[in-house]
Design a protein that fits this description.
330 residues, 5-stranded antiparallel β-sheet, alpha+beta, single chain
């Protein structure tokens, strides 16, 4: 996904002359500018599905690499009530807040949802598209089972998290999700972990997943005697167990195209900064850089020697600063 459109660039004064800036050329410049903005921000910005291993560190919070992270929950309905997976289509109450699908791109990472198939049993499904009330192109990834509307409005959810103490990013014998490796446990959103969302709900700008429900570094579950027992004794809060790539997260992160109605939408300052960079590239392509001076008789010009002297680039960087990833610690 590019970070702006040709229409965004043509709105900039002086850029509407398509004889000097033909649309096919602008399209190429938009692609290059979008990649430059993402490199400057040190992160992917477009909406995408991710499928990544993480190492638990014995802490309550796990921060994923891309953000904002989307969180959504719904329930099955219609023809899916009582249907046994696998099914090509899963009818739900609403797909609002879920990844809309791969858009027909065969190379795109398909998004994933968790689906409840028993009182305490869950599985997971990839899909390629959505309607307002269904997931389409579904492929079962976990165990088969029966979906029921009676499981409630949170029986289909995203993101999906797995734990395996000895899978080592799936490189151990049996892999992470193989049926020959029965140690992989699918964790339950709202019971064993939750997404630390922002005030608007439905997304986490921090990309933070917090463990809940368990009481030890190596236990993935729920000890009810630790809660509401009335005892004054201390106990350890639940944590992501320490290990090497022992947690696997399938999640959606990033921004949807501006004006698309997809939540969360690409911020205006990113769109504007990218369009400004395209305009800068188009205006200065003939001379190769911004001009420091021009002469009319026997035309001549001089270019600025350092990119730091270019005010347009400084303004673009300033607009993007709040979206730039920062590294902390070692």
């Amino acid at each position: 996904m590019t970070l702006c459109t040709v229409e965004d660039v043509l709105l900039i004064p002086g850029m509407s002359n398509q004889a000097k800036a033909p649309v096919p050329w602008l399209d190429r410049l938009i692609g290059a500018a979008s990649n430059s903005v993402k490199r400057f921000c040190k992160r992917d910005l477009e909406m995408a599905a991710y499928d990544e291993p993480y190492s638990g560190a014995g802490q309550r919070d796990l921060v994923v690499r891309q953000f904002p992270v989307w969180m959504a929950q719904t329930g099955v309905t219609g023809a899916s009530d009582g249907a046994t997976l696998p099914q090509a289509t899963i009818d739900v109450l609403s797909t609002k807040g879920f990844h809309p699908g791969t858009g027909g791109d065969p190379n795109a990472q398909p998004p994933v949802v968790a689906v409840q198939i028993g009182p305490s049993n869950w599985t997971w499904v990839t899909y390629t598209g959505t309607t307002a009330t269904s997931f389409t192109g579904c492929v079962l990834g976990g165990p088969a089972g029966t979906m029921l509307a009676s499981y409630g409005s949170q029986s289909v959810s995203s993101p999906v998290v797995f734990y395996n103490s000895a899978a080592f990013a799936g490189q151990a014998p049996g892999g992470f999700f193989s049926t020959t490796n029965p140690n992989t446990q699918q964790m339950v959103l709202g019971t064993q972990f939750y997404v630390e969302t922002d005030s608007t709900g439905g997304k986490s700008n921090r990309g933070l997943l917090r463990r809940i429900g368990g009481s030890g570094a190596g236990f993935i579950g729920f000890y009810p005697e630790n809660f509401y027992s009335g005892k004054l004794a201390a106990y350890r809060m639940p944590v992501w167990p320490r290990g090497d790539d022992n947690v696997w997260v399938k999640y959606t992160a990033g921004f949807g195209p501006a004006g698309s109605g997809v939540r969360p939408m690409l911020p205006d300052e990113i769109v504007w900064a990218t369009a400004q960079l395209v305009a800068y590239m188009a205006r200065n392509m003939p001379s190769g850089a911004s001009l420091s001076s021009e002469n009319l008789g026997s035309y001549s010009y001089n270019v600025l020697q350092q990119s730091t002297d270019v005010p347009e680039l400084g303004s673009i960087a300033q607009m993007l600063k709040s979206h730039r990833e920062s590294s902390w610690g070692v």
